[in-house]
Amino acid sequence: MQSPGPVNTEVEWDRFDPQAYVRHNYADLRSDDRELLRRTRDFFAAAKLTDARCVDVGSGANLYPALTLLPFARAIDLCELSTSNVRWLRTQVDGYDELWDPYWQVCVEHPAYAALSDPRQRLAQVGQVCRTSVFDLPQHTWDAGTMFFVACSISADRAEAEHAVARFLRALRPGAPFAVAVMLGSVGYRVGLRSFPAVALHRAEVVAGIAAGAYDVTVHEERPRPPLRDGYQSMLLTTGRTRG
């Protein structure tokens, strides 16, 4: 079946504007992001990770998934395809902007995070930005991982969204804890003056796709009021451990 819109390789990702994306999405900590951040924080704290090699896939212009991995990581690979986002990420790994401080303050409400006195220095020590696609990830490489708002927003092809989830899970070692977040019902989004494609995913299909490669799966759905933008229904966070 032909895709209803552009596939991943047809999108001009190098023209993505990370500054515009951050201003619109993360300049103020929203209640929906706070709840996803809190739940992801608690999940990784309960996973009893130590000295883990971690990955954040499709980091884009969002730092908070990587922050949830910070206390437990000997290394965090921030994997991103867009060259403009790669440049932005490298500036943040070296010393992230103050707007991310409220996100870290949510993290330090948990003792496992409060014990880390200098998150900026720690991220500079363990963070590494890698230019790569989710479709090119090596198998069984990382001990824990995050993938936020990627599968739903890398093309208009539903099969690619499903493939992205499967490749992410296979990139983790058996039993690795992970967190995946997607927009449900998304019909596309704008960044600055440019439009980018999305897939209108449904809760049941996302959960089924993740459960095929994972166990101990938990699901939380956030319906933001007001919404971040037009053209989506809710945000879905799924956590679990990989089957391997």
Name given to the CATH homologous superfamily: Vaccinia Virus protein VP39
Runs with pLDDT <50, length 5+? none
**Which architecture would the CATH scheme give at its second level?**
3-Layer(aba) Sandwich
Q: What is the CA–CA distance across the termini?
A: 30 Å
**Side-by-side strand order of the widest sheet:** 3-2-1-4-5-9-8
- What is the subunit arrangement here? single chain
Mean pLDDT: 94
Please indicate the count of domains: 1
Shape: globular
The CATH topology label is Rossmann fold
Strand content: 15-25%
Instruction: Give the CATH class.
Output: Alpha Beta
The major pleated sheet works out as: 7 strands, mixed
Tell me what you see in this structure:
The protein has 244 residues and is an alpha/beta fold. It has one domain (8-242): 3-Layer(aba) Sandwich (Rossmann fold). Helix content is 35%, strand content 23%. It has nine helices and nine strands. It has helices spanning 18-26, 31-46, 64-69, 83-94, 101-107, 111-114, 119-126, 158-171, 203-211, and strands at residues 52-57, 73-80, 127-131, 144-148, 177-184, 189-191, 194-196, 214-222, 234-242. A seven-stranded mixed beta sheet has the order 3-2-1-4-5-9-8, sandwiched between helices. Strands 6-7 form a two-stranded antiparallel ribbon. Helix 3 (64-69) links the parallel strand 1 (52-57) and strand 2. The two termini are 30 Å apart. The model has no long low-confidence stretch (mean pLDDT 94).
